[in-house]
Amino acid sequence: MSDVRLLTGGEAVAHAMRQVDPDVVPVYPITPQTPIIQTFAKLVADGQASTEIVNVESEHSAMSAAIGAALAGGRTMSATSSQGLALMAEVVYIAASMRAPIVMALGNRALSGPINIHCDHSDSMLIRDSGVVQLFAENAQEAYDLMVMAPRIAEDPRVLLPVLVCLDGFTITHSAEPVSLLPDDDVTRFVGPYSVPNAVLDTTSPTTQGPFAMPDYYFELRRQQAAALETALDVLEEVALDFERLSGRRNGALEAYRLEDATRALVALGSTAGTIKDVVDELRDEHELAGLLRLVSFRTFPTAAVAAALDECTHVAVLDRADSPGGTPPLHAELAAALYGSDVELTGHVYGLGGRDLHPSDVRAVFTGTPTPYLGLRGERCLV
Amino acid sequence: MSRLKTIVRNQRGVQPLRGGHSLCQGCGIPMVARTVLSTIRQPVVVVNATGCLEVATTRFPSTAWNVPWLHVAFENAAAVASGVESAQRALRRRHALPAGQEVAVVVFAGDGGTYDIGLQALSGARERGHRFLFVCYDNEAYMNTGVQRSSATPFGASTTTSPAGLESFGKAQRRKDMTAIAIAHHVPYVAQAASTHWHDLSVKVERAVAADGPAFLNVLTDCPVGWGHEPQLSRRVIDAAVETCFWPLYEVVDSRYRLSYRPQHAPVEEWLGSQQRFAHLFRPGSEGLVRQIQDQVDAEWDALLARCDDAPA
Question: Which among A158, A156, A234 is positioned nearest to A195, based on CA atoms?
């Protein structure tokens, strides 16, 4: 029986955390993540979850404490945004290398400077190569779903890596939508008990974790870690199938929206997909063969599935909500690699930095009109 | 039972930190780590900040540790320990750990990982009240990276980033009083100890672990390479720090100060003269600097005595 509530994305994530009921949640406040931890703290205060919340003094310590807790043998979750992720970036890399299965919600927000609190994906892209799984939600429902799925992916013995559930700041974190919650018992059964190999608190079989590796071993250890991230893609699909059986909702690595016979496709992450879907529907009404490829899993990047999904397209446009000054924006670069050797015409567009709205007319222009590299940017002088 | 027998008994036949590590001859760190861990009777987890101890004991795929050991980074050992301690609390509450003795969480960090880059995480953890023992092995500079000055480096010491020279007498600033900072967190147990005063250190560890809450130990530990003394002279050098009152041995239990050893109050030259890093202070014309150091030591000593309720004669 489904329990549909009007929840913001932040609240929906907090309810997923209540149902997963992790052992430890080290967390530090930052906009637009704060609704997650505030909602969760109140749920714990009211006895609806029995988690140890550790109100640390910085995000750097949040991720550090998360590693300690996760490797000690406790299921661990956290949440952050923007500068918080930037501050903890050092430790995010180490969390992945120590194979700590931490689940963290990321309320995507632009990086300073100038300081800004609104959405873009530059925080996610900052840790693109850290070795963590990054899943992007389109809306509050999917943010909830992915938070329930995430522990299964993170803790799978073939993976053992942190999983970030990314939800667009304000657009998802602060916007209320009807969200269907699973029964608490279903979530408990779905995530199962937590276990990590060689839990630090097991003092009967001591292990040394986080040692010093020189050129004779570092490369091999890094390669093992990368292989685990590659495997995470298969595990995501397995977990998505199980989750579909439970909820009727399928959240795989990507969503192909009206793409079967599309000749022109857009590729994007996150909430912008909603706007793009509306434009695709309009264009379809006008008998244009338009479609959308929405990536849920940015890391692991589903290269083969992306190439297959876009196989029939003649024109593909990539929408990046993060720039790569002096280079190619991250999603565009991934698509260029995935489609290398095909004769598709590929363009890249940066949009929505610092929370700048993307209008349906901008999306339509990418499909049909003259594409510009920076969608919604004012002033021709800014264009190179 | 004698303290030595207690220590041997607590090891239960297995040294927590074995030989085969690559710490230098005469280094005080393994002595501190072994004295601390062998004093603790219950099972332990060690959290180690980046530094000499970490690098020299865990070169993959070998390890010198026989107890669970966790290292994440340089500045965050106290935060990592907060996580381990919180997980233990959560799992015990949920009856998800086998019944038995509580696992003691012990952090080892050098002065860089305590006074400088580790200070924020340490302060946060102490304020939150996580129950673990933080042991600073204070050798008064960044030894692992080649003897750079830290905020624990004493006034007048020559380091590679505060070198003595024609226009310089070494570090121009006084060291931070880290023990006082720890005390300011209102934690139940704080003590200053020295690597060679192993009996005193062991007693303090016992009290620290028994304390109901966070505990902090600041242990002066020699570095023959960075300090410039022969490895076999470690004991003499550290003893000079204690006997000159440069490094008093005391403890603060629930805000009450107690001197745990009554030093001779020998002139600071005995301490300064034992190491190359202070050699420039004995050049003609530097007498004022030595006097200045003596005045600093005397003032700190007097202030400490005034705070102590109880001092051995």
Answer: A156
B119-140 per-position pLDDT tens digit: 999 999 999 999 999 999 999 9
Nearest Cα of chain B lies from the Cα of A96 at a distance, in angstroms, of 11
CB pairs under 8 A between A and B: 169
Q: Where are the beta strands (DSSP E) in chain A?
A: 3-8, 24-27, 52-55, 77-80, 103-108, 133-136, 163-168, 176-181, 208-209, 254-257, 264-269, 290-295, 297-299, 315-320, 345-351, 374-375
- CA gap A321, A60 in Å, rounded: 25
Tokens for B290?
Answer: 């030595």
User: Is B3-310 a domain of CATH 3.40.50.970?
Assistant: yes
A243 and A263 within one domain: no
- Per the DSSP assignment, residues forming a β-bridge with B134 are B107, B216
Cα separation of the two ends of chain B: 25
In the beta sheet, which residues pair with residue A320? A350
Instruction: Report CB contact under 8 Å: A211, B72.
Output: no
CA gap B116, B122 in Å, rounded: 10
CATH code at A212? 3.40.50.970
Considering the domain architecture, whether residues A218 and A367 belong to the same structural domain is answered as: no
Q: Which of B15, B82, B92 to probe by mutation at the A interface, max A CB count within 10 Å?
A: B82
- pLDDT tens-digit profile of A308-365? 999 999 999 999 999 999 999 999 999 999 999 999 999 999 999 999 999 999 999 9
Instruction: Please tell me whether the overall predicted TM-score, pTM, comes out greater than 0.95 for this model.
Output: yes
A222 and A259 both lie in a single domain: no
